[in-house]
Amino acid sequence: MSEARESEFKGNPMIVLANGPDDKYPFQFGLRKAKLVLAHVEDIKKFVEKHEGESKGSPSSGDVPF
């Protein structure tokens, strides 16, 4: 199951998104990029819908729910 947690890097807040506690390569970013993601969340949803089901480059563990 996917999980989100907070962390910090050089004193800056970070969010860490992982495909579970054993994920070796979690996705993490700071406040500036988090704001950018929020500004484009609808574009990201459209991108996922458009490309969902394509096998190239898909993660090995299941779908990540929104």
Based on the model shown, name its key terms.
alpha+beta, 3-stranded antiparallel β-sheet, 3 strands, about 70 residues
How would you characterize the overall build of this protein?
It contains 2 helices and 3 strands. The protein is α+β, with helices and mostly antiparallel strands and 66 residues long. The protein has one domain (3-51). A 3-stranded antiparallel β-sheet has the order 1-2-3. Strand 2 and strand 3 form a beta hairpin. The radius of gyration is 13 Å and the shape is flat. The termini are close together. The mean pLDDT is 89.
**Total number of beta strands:** 3
Flag low-confidence runs. none
Helix run count: 2
> Shape, please?
flat
Topology:
Layout: E1 3-9, E2 12-18, E3 27-30, H1 31-39, H2 41-51
Antiparallel strand pairs: 1-2, 2-3
Q: In a nutshell, what does this entry contain?
A:
With 66 residues, the protein is an alpha+beta fold. Helix content is 30%, strand content 27%.
